[in-house]
LysM peptidoglycan-binding domain-containing protein
Amino acid sequence: MQKSKKWRILALSTIATSFFALQTAEAATYTVQKGDTLSKIAQNHQVTIQDIKTWNNLTKDTIYVAQKLEVTKQPSNQEVKPLNPSTSTTKPVTPSKPISTSYTVVKGDTLSKIAKQYNVTLKELKDWNELTTDAIYIGQVLKVSPVASIPEGETIHNNVTSNTGAPSKVTTKDPTLSGQAIYKKTIEVANLLVGTPYLYGGNTPEGLDCSGFIFYAFNQSGLKIGRDSSEGYFFGNTSHVKTPVAGDLVFFENTYKEGISHMGIYLGDNKFVHAGTDGVEISDVTYSYWSSRLVAYKRFDLLK
C-alpha cells in the first residue's frame, strides 16, 4: 500500500513538472493582438525592441495581428554550468540596445514618443536628424542612435503614398529664390486675412474655408494654383519636406471627417495660420488638438 502511494506521488509530480515546462515553452512565443506594437510587447516581456527583432529576424518595426513572435531567448540544447558559480567570470547577459538602427514614423507618433521608446533625449533625436522643430511626418525615417545610418532610398516609405498608390515625393532642399519670394508675399497676404469669417467653400476675403484660404493666399502672391480640397492638395503636386520653413503647407487629419481634412500655412516657431471654424486665425501645432492630428509638412512642387 505504501509503495503504491509513493508511485502515485511520483506520477503526479512528473505531470506537474511537464505542465509547468509546457507553460514556460508557450510563454516564449507571443501572438500579436489588435493594438499591439513592438514597443508594447517588449515592455510587457521586459526585453528590448531590438531583442524581439533579432530573435524574429525582423528588419523593421512592422508587425501584424496573429503574427507569432519569440519573446524570450531560447536556450541551447546543451547548457554548460560553471563549476563554481561564486568564482565564475561569466558576466550576466543583458538585453541589447538598438545602437545602430533607424525608425520609420507611423501614424500617432511624436518625436518625444519615439525618444522615450529608444531611451534617448528629444534633443539627441533632433541633432542626429538635423531637425529644427519637433515636426515629423508619416513615413519619415529617423536615426535613433548616433551611429545609425539611413539606407539609400529609405527616406520614402511605402505608406506615404499618393492617391495613385505611387510613393510620395520628399524634398530636403530649401525653396528656390522665386519660391522664397512667393512665400514672403503669401505670409503677408495670410496675415492680412486674419479675422476673415469662415465660409464653407469660400475662397475670397468675404469668407474662406481652409483650402480656399490656401488658394486665395498663394494666387494673390503669384503662384497660380487651382482650387482644390485639403485632400486634393495633399495628394496633388506637393512634396513632403524634411525641415519645414515659413510658407510651407501643414496638413491635419480627422478634424471634421476621417482622413486628410484640414490645412494651413506654416509660419515658423510651431505657429501656423489657417481658416478654422472661427475664421482665419493663428494656432500652435504643439497644442494637443493639432499635434495629435498633424500628418505632414509639404511644399508645392512649383516652389522646390
Summary: Residues 198 and 279 are 4 Å apart (CA to CA). The two ends are 92 Å apart (CA to CA).
